[in-house]
Write a structure and sequence with these properties.
By secondary structure, the protein is mainly alpha-helical. The chain has helices at residues 15-32, 34-37, 40-60, 68-88, 94-109, 114-122, 125-132, 137-149, 183-187, and strands spanning 4-5, 11-12, 156-160, 165-166, 172-173, 178-181. It is globular and about 60 Å long.
């Protein structure tokens, strides 16, 4: 990783590259053990796999319809094998890396959140989080709000209709039509979020957990909507169905 040093000795690291490496390393350590987590060749392959998949998926969308059946027959067995591998070993890192980068940026823009988040991470709650992945409501809410205000994608849940049907709202979808979820617009919809343009890092924290905090320095326009960051039932940032990441 390139380290940039200026004339007065201050060093800087490219944030996204640093976070991406950290996420890939953490995934490898969790699912494959220390040996592979320190194998640079393996880590590079894990990184390239996801990024190459995303790149080629967009290229394939542009393939002429006439040759689509041939490509379909070639790629389906490969795709099925990859989906089976993903179900066993979650290698996804692209969305996580971007989300963490945006969260770090938001910490820099809103430093008033640093102290309460640090206290939470230094509290006994951290032990429970390391065991269960839950139990840090302030951090969970902050990352969720960061993802809400700066979603990785503006459009999510892309699907192509295989046959005509009618949505519950009466909209007709013809065969071949693309149907998507406007994730960014939904996250900024005042019907669902009070002061949707404002960043409120503890928007999703239960009010009773905010009693001891200095509320004058923290914007909480709509307290009392606690949700888990990974709850995808009505949260389209991560996708939907079995492909939710």
């Amino acid at each position: 990783m390139d380290v940039i040093e200026n004339s007065v000795g201050i060093k800087a690291l490219p944030l996204y590259s640093m976070v991406k490496e950290a996420v890939v390393h953490a995934n490898a350590l969790s699912f494959f053990g220390r040996d592979l987590a320190h194998d640079q060749v393996f880590l590079k392959s894990a990184t390239d796999f996801i990024e190459s998949t995303l790149l080629f998926a967009e290229i394939i969308r542009l393939v002429p319809t006439a040759i689509a059946p041939t490509i379909h027959d070639i790629l389906v067995p490969i795709a099925e094998q990859r989906l089976e591998e993903v179900s066993r070993h979650r290698l996804g890192h692209n969305v996580a890396a971007h989300t963490i980068c945006f969260a770090v940026h938001d910490l820099c823009l809103h430093p008033e959140y640093i102290e309460p988040l640090r206290k939470e991470l230094e509290s006994p709650l951290r032990d429970g989080f390391e065991q269960t992945g839950t139990g840090l409501p302030l951090l969970d809410s902050f990352i969720r709000e960061s993802a809400r205000t700066t979603p990785v994608e503006s459009i999510s849940t892309r699907r192509q209709a295989l046959e005509p049907f009618v949505l519950s709202g009466g909209h007709k979808v013809e065969m071949g039509d693309m149907v998507c979820t406007p994730a960014r617009a939904m996250m900024k919809d005042p019907a669902h979020f009070a002061a949707p343009q404002a960043f409120s890092g503890f928007r999703f924290v239960k009010p009773e957990l905010l009693v001891d905090l200095d509320r004058s320095r923290l914007q909480v326009p709509q307290p009392g909507q606690p949700r888990s960051l990974t709850d995808a039932t009505d949260w389209q940032v991560w996708g939907t169905g079995r492909m939710v990441w």
